[in-house]
Amino acid sequence: MSVNAWIVVGDQPTVSNLITVARSLGGTVGAVVAGPRSVAETVAASGVDKVVWCSAPDDVPAEANAPAVADAVAADPPRVVLAGRNPGERVLLGAAAARLKAAVLTGARSVIADGDGVVVVNAVFGDIAEETVAVSGPVALLLDGGSVPPADGTGAPVEEISAPPLGLKVIETRTHGFDEVNLGAAHRVIGVGRGLKAREDLAMIEELARALEAEIACSRPVAEGLNWMGKDRYIGSSGAHISPELYLAVGISGQLQHMVGVTGAETIVAINTDPNAAVFSQADYGLVGDLYQLVPAVTAALK
Amino acid sequence: MRIVVAYKWTCDPEEATVSADGTVDWSRAKPGLSAYDPVAIELARQFADGTGAELIGVTVGGKGVGTPIAAKAALGRGLDRVVIVEDESLADAGRSELAAVLAEVIRHIGDVDLVVTGDSSVDVAAKMVPTVLAAELGWPAVAEVTSLTGQAGALRVERAIPGGVQVLGISGPAVLAASADAAAPRVPGMKDLLAAGKKPVELLDLTALKVSPRSAVMTVTGRSRPERKARKGQLIDTSDPATAAVELVAALRQASAL
C-alpha cells in the first residue's frame, strides 16, 4: 500500500491539523518522526497508518536526521508531504522536498486532491493575496501543525530506521526564564508595540491583562531586539497567527507584517498616539492618545 | 575559509496593492535588500573578520537583482564580492527551484564552508529556501541562529528555541538562518558605498548552471483578494481618558467582546 501523504515530525507530536489535512486527501497516511521515540509512539496512536522512527543518539537534534527522513519519504514517494510551522520541521520538510524535487507551498488555506496532483489555495506575500495553484507532481506543504492529537485506539506499527546523522550535536540547553505561552488558546490578547517606552512599563500592561483576563503578546521588535518577551509572544507574518475574541493593540503602528497575524480576531481595539497610524483603519474601536493615560483608564473602567 | 551570504533583492508587500481580482501590483514598490538580510551579512561579516574568511554574497532572482544599484546595496553592507544569477524565469520561481539554483551557484564558487541567510524574506517569509538549500548540498540547516563562533569544521552556534537557547556544535559545512536580532547591522556610509562600487560582481548565466529540473509543476489557475472582516473603524473621543475608557468598555460589552 503506497503512501499518499507523509507527515514529517520533529520534537513535538503537535500534528492534529496535519493528520486532518492528510486524511482529507484519502489514501494511506504515513508519519516519519525524527525526534524522540515517545513522539513516534504518540503519533502512532493518533490515527495514521504507519510510522517510521529515525533513531539517533540523544545529543543529536531532530534536524540532524534530515537525511533519514528524506530516505524514508523517498522510499515510498507520496503525493504530499506535510509539516508544522516550526524551525525543526521546516528543515525536515526541506530535506524531503529536495529529495523529491517537490514544489514547496507555505500558505495553504485549503488542499484538495485532483487526479494525481493537488489543488492548493495558497496565501502569498504576507497574505495580501491568494493564488489557486494546481500542482502536478509531489508537493511539500508547511501548515499549522495543530495540537497533540488524541489517541484513537488503533495504534499504527512503528518501524525503526537509522541513517548516519548530519554533523550536529547539542552541547548545552539554557532556559531564558520567560514563561512559555500558547497564544492560540487565548480568548483575549493584548499586543504591545514600540509605543511602550520602557520595559518596566510592562507592569501597567500586566495590570490591564489581569483586569481583561488576557494574554500579553507583542510586535516583533519587542521580542527580538528589545528582548522584553519570549519569541513565542510575537504576532505577525513570521510569528504567531491568532484569532482571539478580542485583540487590543497598544502602541502598535499596524504594519502589514504585524496585522496579518490578527486578521482573524473577532474585535480589534487600537490605542496609539499617532492618529495616522495604519492600525486605526484595521480596528473596530480606536483611541487616539497617550497609552500611559489610556491603559490605566481602561484598567480602571474594567474593575 | 569561504562564507556565502544568500540574500534577496525584492520589494516589501506593504508597498504593494492588490486589486479586487487578486492581482498584486508592485509598480509603486521600491526594491531593496530584504529586511533581515543586513543582519545575516553583519553576523557573517563579524565571523569572517574573526576567522580571516572571504565573505561572498549570492543572490538569484528575476529582473533587477543584478543591477549595479542592487549589487552595490549588498556590497556596501560588508561583502567582499557578489555572485548573481539574474534571469526573468526566476521571477516567479518557487522555493524549491530557487534553492536548487542557489546550491548550483555555491558549487560553482567552490570550497564554501558556510552559508548564512536572513531569518525570512520580506516578501514571501516562507523560511524554506535555507532548508531546501541545505538538503541540496547535503549539509545541516539550523534556523533562529543568535550567535556564531568557532571555525570552519568546528562551529559553535547558539539558536533560540521555545523557552531558551540551545548551543550546537557543527562539525562540517552548514546553512544557518540568522535570527532577526542576531547582530546589529551597520548603516553603510559614503565610504562603504564608494568601496562597494569597486568590489567584484560576477554575473552567472542560469543556463550554464545545470540545475536539475523539479519533478513538480505549479500552475496558478486563479487569484483572489482574501476577504477581510469588515472593521467598524469607530474612533472614541479621548479628550477625557476616563470617559473614553468607560465608553470603550461599554462598546465592547455591547459587541459581546467582553
The biggest beta sheet of chain B is recorded as:
9 strands, mixed
Helix run count of chain A: 8
Poorly predicted segments of chain B:
none
Q: Summarize model confidence as the mean pLDDT of chain B.
A: 96
Beta content of chain B: 25-35%
CATH architecture of the largest domain in chain B: 3-Layer(aba) Sandwich
- CATH-derived topology of the largest domain in chain A: Rossmann fold
What do you see in this structure?
The complex is a heterodimer of chains A (303) and B (258). With 303 residues, chain A is an alpha/beta fold. Chain A is built from 8 helices and 16 strands. Chain A has helices spanning 16-24, 37-44, 66-75, 87-100, 202-212, 220-223, 256-259, 291-302, and strands spanning 3-9, 28-33, 50-54, 80-84, 103-105, 108-114, 117-124, 129-136, 139-143, 158-161, 168-175, 188-192, 215-218, 246-250, 267-272, 285-288. Chain A is elongated. The mean pLDDT of chain A is 94. Chain B is globular. A 9-stranded mixed β-sheet of chain B has the order 11-10-9-12-8-1-6-7-13, sandwiched between helices. Chain B has a two-stranded antiparallel sheet with strand order 2-5. The mean pLDDT of chain B is 96. At the A-B interface, helix 3, helix 4, strand 5, strand 7 and strand 8 of A face helix 3, helix 4, strand 9, strand 10 and strand 11 of B. Strand 11 of chain A pairs antiparallel with strand 11 (164-170) of chain B.
